[in-house]
Amino acid sequence: MNERLVKLKENALAKINEADSLDKLNDIRVAFLGKKGELTEILKGMKDVAPEERPKVGQIVNETRAAIEEVLEDAKKSLASKALEAKLKSEVIDVTLPAKKTNVGHSHPNTLALEEVKKIFVGMGYEVVEGPEVEYDYYNFEALNIPANHPAKDEQDTFYIDEKTLLRTQTSSVQVHEMERGKLPIKMISPGRVYRADEVDATHSPCFHQVEGMVIDENITFADLKGTLAEFAKQLFGPETKVKFRPHHFPFTEPSAEMDVSCFKCGGKGCRMCKGEGWIEILGCGMIHPHVFEMSGIDKDKYTGFAFGIGLERIALLKYEIDDMRLLYENDERFLKQF
Hints:
This protein is α+β, with helices and mostly antiparallel strands. It folds into two domains: 2-90; 109-336, Bira Bifunctional Protein, Domain 2 (BirA Bifunctional Protein, domain 2, 2-Layer Sandwich). It contains twelve helices and nine strands. It has helices at residues 2-18, 22-33, 38-43, 54-90, 109-123, 137-140, 151-155, 172-181, 222-237, 290-295, 312-319, 333-336; strands at 127-128, 134-136, 165-167, 186-195, 207-217, 243-250, 253-262, 279-288, 304-311. Strand 6 and strand 7 form a beta hairpin. The protein is elongated, with a radius of gyration of 41 Å. GO terms for molecular function: ATP binding; catalytic activity, acting on a protein; magnesium ion binding; phenylalanine-tRNA ligase activity; transferase activity; tRNA binding. Mg(2+) binds at residue 254. One of its GO terms (biological process) is phenylalanyl-tRNA aminoacylation. One of its GO terms (cellular component) is cytoplasm.
């Protein structure tokens, strides 16, 4: 028994000294000290040792185990240290090298313009409401006082999915949904993507963005409309901005108007930006037509309101002095990085 233990110890120490990796070291530990290892097999033969010799043999077994474990631990620390040193050498970092440049994106001009418009109206107490881009013809036209075969439909001819479903031509449809909910008063803007069968040129696109607004309450007048939009223009283009309203026709408002702002480039004197006129058209507006109230179940004798619609691309083009709408969608980084 003693001879077997001595031979086992010598054999184990020799293999430990030859090990050149932590994996091999673990295999040696299992082979000698594991549940099915050589030392365990020797211990199974203790039953054949004379009772008076067992304490002595047991002591030798424990000493053998301790010696092997001690050498294993020292070898493990040594190999781990060498492995770490090799890893550090292979992964050395030269801190004097220039860092890799990270390309960080930023908001699109349309997004910048929308965020500014939303900030202005939210500051006035408006709620931002969104709705579906695929809409029923009823909400896009009929509920806005544009019945079938109305001439206004030709101006907004759009993409139909079937006879009753289309891609919305205006975000006014979102306003109709809000009116049908019947939760009054209403003070909202509805930004979103709209679609029309327009030819692509410097000022038109078959897909663009609108921000439409609506206020409904008791005793709302055209004066409220003018005051609201005048304040909006001043916050968007500068405190010296003036506004003027020109009579116009929209089927869903009466009276209706188009609003111009004094040219923020020349102060109204006339320049290339305003085509020498001193004024720039930016939106359409008006008092909500009584028939629109009736279609949505709102008492036209008790409530009045106004609505307005702004082309978001137009705001972006004016604010950032861009002369071609197509530049917004060509994804040219040289252009987009300017904003």
